[in-house]
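Assess this:
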Amino acid sequence: MRATAVILVAALPALAHAEAGGYADAGDAYCTYAESVAKSESALLFSPQLFLDYGVVNGNDVTTGAGGLTSAAPTQRLTFGARYSLVAGLVRGVVNRQRASADCARYRAESGLSRFLVENREGVSPGALDAKLAVLRAAMPRAQEVLRNLKNSVERSHATVEELEATQVRVDDLETSLSQAETLRAGLPSRSTLPAPDELLRRHREADAEVTRYESRLRLTEAFDVQVRGGYDQFFGLRDVTPLFGVVSLVINPAGLYMPFAESDAARAKARVVRMENDSVEQKAELLNARLTALLAGEKRRLGEVRVLLADVEGRIHALEAIESDKLRRFREAMWFDWVKLKAEQEFLRVHTAELSTTLGGGGDGG
């Protein structure tokens, strides 16, 4: 089991590099996708439409390019030209690209919130576990040596079996702590350089509001339009002095007067949905942010307590070092196991509080 954990820890740097690049790469890839789709759609909207009509028309009412009416036998008609929509084309094309940029910003913020959830799902930072593992790994050789020496002392009747069993329990406890820390460390994702969760939430809400505004503008452009058409219109068999034509059309849907009121209600409702939607990334991030804030406060208190306990144990060990006695030496070694556990916890808490402060946007001072 420990061998497997060590292998996973050894492979962690490669995994960390892939994960660290994945967060930024996903945002870049999505933005490229969204903006490319917007460019593709806008290309059609920005470009004028060319048209060509040819056929036979009834000659009872023939409208010539000069604007007059004439009666004639059924005749052939050729019409070609170009038309362009200033609102449904130009305006919608610009707004569509603006919406794509806002959608890109929203995705980056949402991706950052998702990454925040992944990196902090265990409530433990990789750096804190590394600090704890460094203490435990450094202590294991001496722990094994203490156990071997005590076994020799038992064989020479210089120590009791009870003392050997107690030391064996302490060594097993260290090995268990080491194995658990290695296993947990192997399953943790790498850390990305993320803004504070409050900042990510603010960015996500602002970007979502921007997307909502641009979507509203796109819907409003459907209520009116200004079109320009021009080209050549020829009736075969008829004399037409001016077969060229040009037309400007204005189209207005009266419902457009009501749409802004409905769009305002929709925007306010969308903002509430983003904040209150069950199982949404924002709700999860807010809850995790609150939990990590409480955890940071508790870890800081615990760090102060551990420092006091560690200083007390260190003082006792130093006091016993001046006295030469087998019994006191074994008592000092038993206290050394307590020192290792406290030292490992102190290093874990020291780094963990610093990294939690950085994650939550409070700087790197963990106390």
